[in-house]
Amino acid sequence: IDIKTLRSVTGGITTLDAGFKNTSSCESAITFLDGEKGILRYRGYTIEELADKSDFIEVIFLLIFGELPTSEQKKKFHKDIQSKSLVDADVKKILDGFPKTAHPMGVLSALTSALTAFNPQSVEVSSESDMYNAICKILGKFPVLVSWAYRKEEGLPLAYGDNTLGYVENFMKMMFESPVEKYVMNPVIVNALDKLLILHADHEQNCSTSTVRIAGSSHAGLFASISAGISALWGRLHGGANQAVIEMLEDIKADGGDYQKYIDKAKDKNDPFRLMGFGHRVYKNFDPRANIIKVAAEEVLNDLGIDDPVLDIARGLAEVALSDEYFKERNLYPNVDFYSGIIYRAIGIPVPMFTVMFALGRLPGWIAQWREMRLNKEPIGRPRQLYIGATERAFVPVEER
Ligand code: ACO
User: Which residues does the entry assign to the active site, renumbered to this chain (predicted)?
Assistant: First the structure.
């Protein structure tokens, strides 16, 4: 195809970059990631320092508004979120329509989208205060929906929050309080979850975040854009990997612990199997989140006195894979999802809820990216394509085909 024809077809020169491996879709001041050096920073602060010294509500504020909050700002922000946490009772009717066997990611995506129907004033945001309201609403209501997705599956009555508690404590109570027994908060579990949520909070233009930005670029509302992000996160190549990892480790355990067999399978180019929780589009050295989570998993299991043979399998598998030429040549390392499921399981989260927990952690990143995109007045996201189909041909009536 000559350049003149290309221009007339495309309106200009386009690049073809399947999977956007070398294409930046936007300018962003939120998250810095250096895949070669294994560096991840939110608004300039290293993930190591934030995971160690900060808490989730502070990180939410930092990601969305750009600075760590003062203690007054933190209190007010948390209060504003709490004041918007009630979910319309009619949303429960939608939940009732799902079978108990429904995957909670599908339920969460549908209920999040349904919030647009119950909060129509949050769909069209024309001022920063509208935007702030919509942000507090989704931050308040999302943990309620997550807990409902879980309680539906477990056959438990639905719960509302307790505004005297912190964001993570409140979430734990909504999830696990039984109608017949008071929920006793375990600080080890709260700390572990707080850390996990911080580690998942943003990761620049990954698949789900790009989905949120592109859906939002049409001026679809925040809740609808987040719902699109949840669907994108669900897949096994993205957030769904945390569920896939624990299922893989369980399979290895049931198979007598022979992880070498699975490593060989992953190397076999005629076998579609991949080591779940290994490899990353950007990290080509190590995933700093995985390093922090590995240590946290050991600590949590120790503190809770849990001996999980699956952690031994994970350790052994990682060690062997990391010294294997196939994985070395391709720079394949354990990613954030490799060890996170071990912690989720230790703190009582069932396997189908793992990716939902990822969504709870990623929510502030999605919000921050959506807000940045709207404030920057970015144009609608609309990639081009390289057409490779048929050239013009005459229509053939059905009886002549
Ligand atoms: N097991 C075995 N081989 C792998 C794996 C793996 N987990 N990951 C990549 N490879 C191989 C590929 O087969 C390919 O080999 P080749 O060069 O011989 O063809 C090479 O490594 C490069 O892989 P790509 O698929 O081109 O890398 P890409 O950047 O497109 O994919 C991804 C990244 C999707 C994360 C991939 O590594 C993968 O599928 N991992 C397993 C799923 C997973 O853990 N996902 C979670 C990612 S983190 C997150 O989203 C939160």
Answer: 280, 337
